[in-house]
Amino acid sequence: MKKNWLLGISLALVLAMVGLCGCATPAQVNLVTQEEGIWVTGRGEVMAAPDIATLRLGIAAQAATVAEAQSQATEAMSKVMASLIDNGVAEEDIQTQYFSIRQVTKWDRETEEEVVIGYRVTNKVTAKIREIDKTGAIIDAVAEAGGDLTRIDGISFSVDDPSAYYEEAREKAMANAKAKAEQLAELADVTLGKPTYISEGIQIPPIIYPREVYVEEAPAPVTPISPGEIEISLTVQVAYAILG
Prior knowledge:
Layout: H1 2-21, E1 38-48, E2 52-63, H2 66-86, E3 94-108, E4 113-129, H3 135-146, E5 150-158, H4 163-188, E6 192-203, E7 213-214, E8 230-242
Antiparallel strand pairs: 1-8, 2-4, 2-5, 3-4, 5-7, 6-8
């Protein structure tokens, strides 16, 4: 009797659900959407002469105590900062990127444990050099100011105001996208319509970080630095309508 009662309730629930969904057509859920049209990606590239050099440099000092290591690092970094400013780098263009105080340890084979042998203080900054022709001379001045504690991590180049270059790259990217879409429309034997969707993506060239350079003393001649040219590029994704 109990089984018949449960069966009756289950059947009633099924009938109620069918009634809500409709008996003539079953309920359908569309999980797939498809964009119509011709989708292409265009790319535009422009070469530009950089007018800013960004120098990544710092100080690393190691001593038996934290106080001694920090004192050495502070003195050396103060000289480096003064050298940058004396050579035309604005204070607002100098920014601290990294600072750490760490233990220096070694493995003691007799006790079979790590033992502290000193402390290492590292202070790194980036400096924007707007007088790009003075880059080599500034590197030499910094190396001399910081002495054996100087660390130079690398250098990169950029354009202070790239807006005009991006405008040119944007025109090239749109022309490139249109040419691709016209070819696809011709191959598919359809008529190309107007763009229905446009999205832009700026591509920033990767910065190469060379291994850390330990400068023992500044060389007599000025360090040669060649900024060359950099590539400014962007991409656009465009969807064109198909007229028929």
